[in-house]
Design goal:
Blueprint lengths: L14 H7 L7 E5 L5 H8 L3 E6 L2 H7 L5 E4 L14 E7 L8 H8 L3 E12 L4 H8 L21 H11 L1 E10 L11 H10 L1 H4 E10 L4
Parallel strand pairs: 1-2, 1-4, 2-3, 4-5
Antiparallel strand pairs: 5-7, 6-7
Helix pairs in contact: 4-6
């Protein structure tokens, strides 16, 4: 089930951020993992949500604190998590799991922080995107400073492998969606609906990343 109607959103810039905001409700307590300097944090707070962040870089964390109740500094995989159990309505992992050596264990560390009925929102870049396939056809797999082939990515996922990883971690997926990116239609405001509709035919090819919203399975 899609998260919402893509045609209600401006496609540029930060399409992933807009899709994330669509999964939240005003007044919620939100844990944003990998909050960076707070570009998304600011928008979440503007909705009336109370945000706690986790960020590895102290200088970025300092900026994100302008929009959050607290920002913890450290590596999610190893840092202490001095947060009360069952204290968040939503936990955001937006472009985070591909940077981790053990994303499954990282997710399981976070599950106890969700309230009953709370949900995890995950965005994962799509390595099967058409641009990467063209590179492979040309015999190239070059890393970039950002994007799908960001040089800091430790893992790469297709839609199916991302879903399998999340389910293995113990996430029961309730909603899915994607960020469309169809050649000739991309970044054109007047063709937002067409971009999404064409991408929905072959999302594995025409999407830059996938979104999943789910709740921990019982026993996790």
């Amino acid at each position: 089930m899609p998260l919402g109607h893509y045609d209600t959103f401006d496609p540029v810039p930060h399409r992933a951020h807009r899709r994330t905001l669509a999964s939240l409700r005003p007044g919620e307590r939100v844990l944003e993992v990998g909050c960076s300097s707070g570009a998304l944090t600011e928008r979440i707070a503007a909705m009336g949500c109370r945000v706690t962040g986790i960020e590895m870089r102290p200088e970025a964390a300092a900026q994100a604190r302008r929009f959050s109740e607290e920002v913890l500094v450290g590596d999610l995989a190893t840092m202490p998590l001095p947060l009360p159990p069952s204290s968040f309505d939503a936990i955001l992992l937006i472009d985070v799991l591909e940077h981790l050596a053990d994303p499954i264990e990282a997710m399981r560390r976070l599950f106890p922080l969700l309230r009953e009925g709370g949900r995890m929102v995950v965005a994962i870049p799509n390595v099967a995107h058409w641009s990467v396939r063209f590179r492979l056809l040309a015999g190239r797999f070059d890393y970039d400073e950002s994007g799908i082939l960001d040089r800091t990515h430790l893992r790469f996922y297709t839609r199916d492998s991302a879903r399998a990883m999340l389910e293995q971690a113990g996430l029961e997926i309730r909603e899915t969606d994607w960020v469309p990116d169809v050649p000739l239609l991309r970044f054109k405001r007047l063709l937002i609906q067409a971009n999404y509709r064409v991408a929905s035919l072959l999302p594995g090819l025409f999407s830059t990343e996938f979104f999943f919203v789910g709740t921990p399975q019982r026993g996790n």
